[in-house]
Specification:
The chain is of the alpha/beta class. It is built from seven helices and ten strands. The chain is 32% helix and 29% strand. It starts with 5 loop residues before the first strand and ends with a strand. The structure holds adenosine-5'-triphosphate and magnesium ion. Adenosine-5'-triphosphate (ATP) binds next to strand 1 and helix 1.
Length: 230
């Protein structure tokens, strides 16, 4: 039997949040394997732990217990420095509210991970042009976020997630702030990126329509995975 190469593997992920004297167990031992090239949709009720799980899988947060293996390495044991380097170089993140810098234009927002990494933006000229073409923003490259529609702003965020050619893209409700027509356009774009550049995508969504763009849907309820239709 041939084994699919694994992009990320979560093993018995537990997350406790402490507020005052009270400890709440938000993730109660989640294990999942995400093969390379998969487009995984994570669904579940509000407060079930979806974003917490996504952030732990992407190294934005650490598990209280358990491990997250990326390329066989346990990223949950990385120190902050190693984590932030990994976040800038190996993965891309897309959020519901775009998280763009208001006073930077489209090009500058897209190049931000490069600049933060101390690299020369000039070396990324070709890559930038190519990505702006993919997300359809070539003619908006000098606009600032407030001069763009919501859908266009999310395209900037997608371009920013792609600039370092990461293997894995994480998205937390990428269409949550968009009307359904624009949401569909964004989902088609993500699907195209998944198919054509063979990137692994892990997306949290409330929308069944959006989730259907994935190859697999995992449901989280009360900090546990309760089904998987793979
Ligand atoms: N930094 C934090 N400190 C304390 N509690 C937190 C923190 N982050 C999340 N929580 C709690 O963990 C639980 C899960 O939150 P999470 O954001 O993962 O839910 P979610 O499934 O993404 O919900 P939504 O669909 O509303 O975005 C919630 O009860 C939330 O209040
Ligand atoms: Mg959430």
């Amino acid at each position: 039997m041939t084994k699919m190469p694994v992009a990320i593997e979560g093993e018995n992920i537990i997350k406790d949040f402490k507020i005052g004297d009270t400890v709440t167990r938000v993730l109660k031992g989640i294990s999942l394997q995400i093969p390379k090239g998969e487009f995984l949709s994570i669904m579940g009720p509000s407060g079930s732990g979806k974003s917490t799980l996504l952030y732990i899988l992407g190294g934005l947060d650490s598990p209280t217990n358990g491990s997250v293996l990326m390329g066989g390495k346990d990223i949950s044991r990385y120190n902050d420095e190693k984590k932030s380097v990994m976040r800038r170089r190996d993965i891309g993140f897309i959020f519901q509210f775009y998280n763009l810098i208001p006073n930077l234009n489209v090009e500058e927002n897209v190049l931000l991970p490069i600049l933060l990494d101390g690299k020369n933006a000039k070396d990324y000229r070709k890559q930038l042009n190519n990505i702006l073409e993919i997300v359809g923003l070539t003619d908006r490259r000098n606009h600032t976020p407030r001069e763009l529609s919501g859908g266009q702003q999310q395209r900037v965020a997608i371009a920013r997630a792609l600039i370092n050619s990461p293997d894995i893209i994480f998205a937390d409700e990428p269409t949550g702030n968009l009307d359904s027509k624009t949401g569909t356009e964004i989902m088609k774009l993500l699907k195209e990126i998944n198919r054509e550049s063979d990137k692994t995508i892990i997306m949290v969504t409330h929308s069944a329509d959006a989730a259907a763009y994935g190859n697999r849907i995992v449901s989280v309820r009360d900090g546990m995975i309760y089904n998987s239709n793979s």
